[in-house]
Amino acid sequence: MAGDSKTHNKLTSRIWKKFAEKFESKGCDVFQEGIKVVVDNMNTYMYPDVVVSCDEADKNDAYFVRNPLIIVEVLSANTETADRSKKFHNYRKIKSLRYYLLVSQEQPMIEVFSRQDGNALFSYNLFEDLQDVVDFTDIDMQLELKDVYEGIEFETQLLK
Q: What's the structural domain count of the chain?
Protein backbone atom coordinates (compact mmCIF):
# COMPACT_ATOMS: atom_id res chain seq x y z
CA MET A 1 0.00 0.00 0.00
CA ALA A 2 1.38 3.42 -0.90
CA GLY A 3 2.37 5.52 2.08
CA ASP A 4 3.30 2.65 4.41
CA SER A 5 5.52 3.34 7.39
CA LYS A 6 9.19 2.40 7.32
CA THR A 7 8.47 -0.26 9.94
CA HIS A 8 5.73 -1.74 7.73
CA ASN A 9 8.15 -1.80 4.82
CA LYS A 10 10.93 -3.44 6.85
CA LEU A 11 8.62 -6.14 8.22
CA THR A 12 7.13 -6.88 4.81
CA SER A 13 10.58 -7.07 3.21
CA ARG A 14 12.01 -9.35 5.89
CA ILE A 15 9.10 -11.76 5.72
CA TRP A 16 9.18 -11.75 1.91
CA LYS A 17 12.92 -12.51 2.02
CA LYS A 18 12.49 -15.46 4.42
CA PHE A 19 9.73 -16.98 2.30
CA ALA A 20 11.62 -16.32 -0.96
CA GLU A 21 14.74 -18.06 0.42
CA LYS A 22 12.65 -21.12 1.27
CA PHE A 23 10.16 -21.37 -1.57
CA GLU A 24 11.67 -19.97 -4.76
CA SER A 25 14.14 -22.87 -4.96
CA LYS A 26 11.10 -25.19 -4.90
CA GLY A 27 9.53 -23.48 -7.90
CA CYS A 28 7.11 -21.35 -5.90
CA ASP A 29 6.53 -17.64 -6.39
CA VAL A 30 6.74 -15.16 -3.52
CA PHE A 31 5.32 -11.69 -4.10
CA GLN A 32 5.48 -8.51 -2.06
CA GLU A 33 2.58 -6.05 -2.41
CA GLY A 34 0.97 -5.01 -5.66
CA ILE A 35 -0.18 -8.49 -6.71
CA LYS A 36 -3.90 -9.21 -6.78
CA VAL A 37 -5.19 -12.29 -4.95
CA VAL A 38 -8.53 -13.34 -6.41
CA VAL A 39 -11.20 -14.95 -4.25
CA ASP A 40 -12.72 -18.11 -5.80
CA ASN A 41 -15.28 -17.37 -8.51
CA MET A 42 -15.85 -13.82 -7.33
CA ASN A 43 -15.07 -10.44 -8.78
CA THR A 44 -13.24 -9.75 -5.54
CA TYR A 45 -9.53 -9.34 -5.18
CA MET A 46 -7.17 -8.05 -2.49
CA TYR A 47 -3.59 -6.84 -2.35
CA PRO A 48 -1.82 -8.69 0.49
CA ASP A 49 1.56 -7.57 1.78
CA VAL A 50 3.17 -10.95 1.00
CA VAL A 51 1.77 -13.93 -0.87
CA VAL A 52 3.28 -17.35 -1.62
CA SER A 53 1.93 -19.50 -4.44
CA CYS A 54 3.23 -22.90 -5.51
CA ASP A 55 0.43 -23.46 -8.01
CA GLU A 56 1.39 -23.97 -11.65
CA ALA A 57 -1.71 -22.15 -12.93
CA ASP A 58 -0.67 -19.01 -11.06
CA LYS A 59 2.67 -18.98 -12.91
CA ASN A 60 0.84 -18.49 -16.21
CA ASP A 61 -1.04 -15.37 -15.07
CA ALA A 62 0.88 -12.10 -15.17
CA TYR A 63 -1.34 -10.20 -12.72
CA PHE A 64 -3.33 -12.52 -10.45
CA VAL A 65 -2.77 -15.19 -7.83
CA ARG A 66 -5.76 -17.49 -7.45
CA ASN A 67 -4.25 -20.34 -5.43
CA PRO A 68 -2.10 -18.91 -2.63
CA LEU A 69 -0.50 -21.13 -0.02
CA ILE A 70 0.41 -18.32 2.41
CA ILE A 71 -0.88 -14.76 2.78
CA VAL A 72 0.69 -12.19 5.11
CA GLU A 73 -0.76 -8.86 6.19
CA VAL A 74 1.30 -6.39 8.23
CA LEU A 75 -1.19 -4.56 10.43
CA SER A 76 -1.51 -0.79 10.63
CA ALA A 77 -4.08 1.51 12.23
CA ASN A 78 -5.67 2.06 8.81
CA THR A 79 -5.84 -1.59 7.74
CA GLU A 80 -6.16 -3.72 10.88
CA THR A 81 -9.96 -3.88 10.95
CA ALA A 82 -10.16 -4.85 7.26
CA ASP A 83 -7.27 -7.34 7.58
CA ARG A 84 -9.01 -9.09 10.49
CA SER A 85 -12.53 -9.03 9.10
CA LYS A 86 -13.29 -8.39 5.42
CA LYS A 87 -10.01 -9.69 4.05
CA PHE A 88 -9.90 -12.79 6.24
CA HIS A 89 -13.57 -13.49 5.50
CA ASN A 90 -12.70 -13.52 1.79
CA TYR A 91 -9.30 -15.20 2.03
CA ARG A 92 -10.64 -18.18 3.94
CA LYS A 93 -12.84 -19.03 0.94
CA ILE A 94 -9.69 -19.80 -1.05
CA LYS A 95 -9.27 -23.58 -0.83
CA SER A 96 -5.50 -23.57 -1.39
CA LEU A 97 -4.81 -21.14 1.48
CA ARG A 98 -3.07 -22.92 4.37
CA TYR A 99 -1.66 -19.98 6.36
CA TYR A 100 -2.84 -16.44 7.04
CA LEU A 101 -0.44 -14.32 9.10
CA LEU A 102 -1.20 -11.02 10.80
CA VAL A 103 1.98 -9.22 11.78
CA SER A 104 1.96 -6.33 14.26
CA GLN A 105 4.20 -3.33 13.78
CA GLU A 106 3.31 -1.96 17.24
CA GLN A 107 4.87 -4.83 19.21
CA PRO A 108 6.49 -8.19 18.51
CA MET A 109 3.43 -10.25 17.65
CA ILE A 110 2.52 -12.61 14.83
CA GLU A 111 -0.90 -14.23 14.69
CA VAL A 112 -1.12 -17.37 12.59
CA PHE A 113 -4.34 -18.84 11.24
CA SER A 114 -3.65 -22.26 9.73
CA ARG A 115 -5.53 -25.21 8.31
CA GLN A 116 -4.70 -28.55 6.81
CA ASP A 117 -5.56 -29.54 3.24
CA GLY A 118 -9.28 -29.97 2.78
CA ASN A 119 -10.19 -28.55 6.18
CA ALA A 120 -12.50 -25.55 6.24
CA LEU A 121 -11.63 -24.56 9.82
CA PHE A 122 -8.59 -22.50 10.72
CA SER A 123 -6.71 -22.95 13.98
CA TYR A 124 -5.15 -19.95 15.73
CA ASN A 125 -1.71 -19.50 17.28
CA LEU A 126 -0.25 -16.37 18.83
CA PHE A 127 3.48 -15.63 18.97
CA GLU A 128 4.58 -12.67 21.14
CA ASP A 129 8.07 -13.44 22.40
CA LEU A 130 11.17 -12.62 20.38
CA GLN A 131 12.39 -16.16 21.07
CA ASP A 132 9.22 -17.65 19.54
CA VAL A 133 9.46 -19.57 16.30
CA VAL A 134 6.51 -19.90 13.95
CA ASP A 135 6.75 -23.51 12.81
CA PHE A 136 5.11 -24.37 9.51
CA THR A 137 5.67 -28.09 10.11
CA ASP A 138 3.79 -29.42 7.09
CA ILE A 139 5.80 -27.27 4.66
CA ASP A 140 9.16 -27.57 6.47
CA MET A 141 9.56 -23.86 7.24
CA GLN A 142 10.28 -21.80 10.33
CA LEU A 143 10.02 -18.07 10.91
CA GLU A 144 11.80 -16.67 13.97
CA LEU A 145 10.33 -13.54 15.52
CA LYS A 146 13.80 -12.26 16.38
CA ASP A 147 14.68 -12.26 12.67
CA VAL A 148 11.47 -10.48 11.72
CA TYR A 149 11.68 -7.80 14.42
CA GLU A 150 15.45 -7.31 14.78
CA GLY A 151 16.25 -3.61 15.12
CA ILE A 152 12.62 -2.53 14.98
CA GLU A 153 12.07 0.38 17.33
CA PHE A 154 8.90 0.40 19.38
CA GLU A 155 7.77 3.27 21.62
CA THR A 156 10.36 2.91 24.39
CA GLN A 157 12.81 0.26 23.30
CA LEU A 158 14.94 -0.93 20.45
CA LEU A 159 14.73 -4.69 19.97
CA LYS A 160 18.02 -6.50 19.49
A: 1
